[in-house]
Amino acid sequence: MIVITASNSPLKIAICLAHFHPVVGGAERKMQQLAERWTRCGHRSFVLTRAMSELPAREMLGDVEINRVIRARQLGPLFGATFISSLAAHLLRRSREFDVMVAGQLPWEAVATGIVSRMLRKPAVAFAASTGPQGDVRQLMNAKASRLLGALVRRNSRFVALSGQGHEELRRLGCRDETIVRSTNGVDLERFQPADNDCADRSRTVLYLSRLVPAKNPQLLLRAWKYVNREGQYRLLIAGDGPLAGGLRQLAHQESLQNVEFLGHVSDVAAAHRQASVFVLPSPSEGCSNALLEAMAGGLCPLATRVPGNIDVIRDGINGLLFDHDDEQQLATALSRALTDESMRARLSATARDHVIQHHDLDKIAASYVDLFLQLRAPKETGEPPACGYPA
User: Is residue 29 part of a domain?
Assistant: First the structure.
């Protein structure tokens, strides 16, 4: 439990992210959860995100203020330029309302915070939310005017790397080692807990819970399911939505796959966990997957691709099973082992949750960012800010 200490000088944090509630992805969920924790500690967080015609420009999500005000033109290179200029303008307009800026991901948010940080002499912290071929750094380096954009990004005060690969990619971008902070994603351990019992339905059920997009590679799981469930004794839940949804349903029908249920978007992730005993993450690249960590905290046996990010979390045969992202036979073998060997599944599930408890407690991670922000806050600020403490 977070202990709140009153103070006259709370932090004021501006969170910048292209999408936010109700658009949900790993970066969005992470920033929402962090903002909620910072608010509980007595700090103030507000979000600047893209305007959406069907949603109000300003909305409160609990105690977190959401401002849907960033406007960008969907016309090739103009998108980045208009996004950056719009976000920078709003930050400058509200400069008296924050002590520190947080860019939830690199490509465009961190360019804007880098520009404004230098102009206002206020600190900015940028997160490398994803890695690999489609990751934050690669998108930035592949963009037009990448050298200029990279120079602007490097004006941020600190960069958060969520994995070893993330750290190395930031170095390749030209970020100095002393500006790179190694951290990780956190899990709400009270919300995500193992189910009370391992009933027969749970023990034979596998869960995929992520966006249905090429970057998450859900097709591999369906191809592997063909080998695993020939006799129809197991059940596969596909939770999530995205552009691949129709094609995946068609593939399941064409291959006559048995017991595949498409749940669509799931708002109660913890409830979805309680329906299964095995979790699969087949993506070819990851930063530090919130979905994977939450499933581990929820007591599921995790199966994940052998890629940077995942291998920072999963030790093969110790707290989960790893497989190659392009090998459906490896995944089928891992699924068969997890579904048929109950003692192994129980052991991996228990050690997976223990790992999350030790290394991914969301409250402690949120507090560590507060410590970082306090170190960076302008020297002219006075007074002791609220502290997040933990009972002995």
Answer: yes
For residues 280 and 292, what is the distance between their CA atoms, to the nearest angstrom? 8
Specify the DSSP element, H or E, that contains 64. Answer: strand 64-70
pLDDT digits (tens, 9 = 90+) for 32-50: 999 999 999 899 999 999 9
Q: Report yes or no on 385 lying in a domain.
A: yes
Q: What is the pTM of this model?
A: 0.84
Q: What is the CATH number of the domain that holds 315?
A: 3.40.50.2000
Same domain? 294 vs 165: no
- Sequence-distant contacts of 105-109: CB under 8 A, at least 24 apart: 105/17, 105/18, 105/27, 105/129, 105/130, 105/136, 106/136, 106/137, 106/139, 106/140, 106/153, 107/80, 107/136, 107/139, 107/140, 107/143, 108/18, 108/80, 108/83, 108/84, 109/16, 109/17, 109/18
Cα dihedral 346, 348, 351, 352 sign: negative
Are 146 and 225 part of one and the same domain?
A: no
How far apart are the C-alpha atoms of 332 and 341, rounded to whole Å?
A: 14
- Reduced to 3 DSSP states, what percent helix, strand and coil does the chain have, rounded to the nearest 5? 40, 20, 40
Could you tell me if 107 and 214 lie in one domain? no
Asked if the structure places residue 329 within a domain, the reply is: yes
Identify the CA nearest to 47 among candidates 27, 69, 75. Answer: 69
Residue 355 lies in domain: 200-359
pLDDT (tens digit, 9 = 90+) per residue, 293-315? 999 999 999 999 999 889 999 99
